[in-house]
Amino acid sequence: MDDETSEIPEREGWVARFGHRNISYIVFVIILIPLAYLLEAGGPSGSDAGGGLMAGIMLWGVVTLAFFVGNLGLLIWALAKGQPALKPFIACLLPVLLIVGTLLAEEIMLRK
Predict the structure, then answer these.
(1) How much is the pTM?
(2) How many whole angstroms separate alpha carbon 69 and alpha carbon 58?
(3) Which residues of 33-52 are buried (b: 16+ CB within 10 A; e: fewer)?
(4) Are 112 and 43 in contact (CB under 8 A)?
(5) CA-based end-to-end distance of the chain
(6) CB atoms < 10 A from the CB of 83, how many?
(7) Which pLDDT tens digits describe the chain residue by residue (112 residues)?
């Protein structure tokens, strides 16, 4: 009976290793992209356009900064205490990889 309760199903084990906080951040970014476009569609056009996209970028920046700083603190804490630091390390890499990936995608798309 102890074996049944102590075993973690494969999917839950993967989620537990990657971290719920990291999955939540990825879902936030995925939801924010179409939300920013929806805000843009309802706004003015012409020279006043871009407010919805800019609001999305500013919201992403604020959330990402808080996410990065909080996880950097958790990473330092885990390393200082000798605890496992994989989840905070992944969480610190996610915003950096997102920015680098966006810049690389832009570079690839804009090649002539």
Answers:
(1) 0.73
(2) 17
(3) eeebeebbeeeeeeeeeeeb
(4) no
(5) 64
(6) 10
(7) 444 555 555 556 777 778 888 889 999 999 998 888 888 777 677 766 777 788 888 999 999 999 999 999 999 999 999 998 889 999 999 999 988 988 898 888 888 6
- Helix or strand (DSSP H, E) at 35: helix 20-41
Closest C-alpha to 95, from 68, 63, 66:
68
- What does the chain come to in residues? 112
Which runs of E-coded beta strand occur in 1-112?
none
Give the three-class secondary structure for 49.
coil
CA-to-CA distance for 36 and 34, rounded, in angstroms? Answer: 5
Give the Cα separation of 111 and 59 in Å (integer).
29
Helix, strand, coil percent values for the chain (each to nearest 5): 85, 0, 15
d(CA 99, CA 32): 15
- Rounded to the nearest angstrom, the gap between the alpha carbon of residue 63 and the centroid of all alpha carbons in its chain is 9
Q: How far apart are CA 47 and CA 85, in angstroms?
A: 47
Place of tokens 């996880």: 71
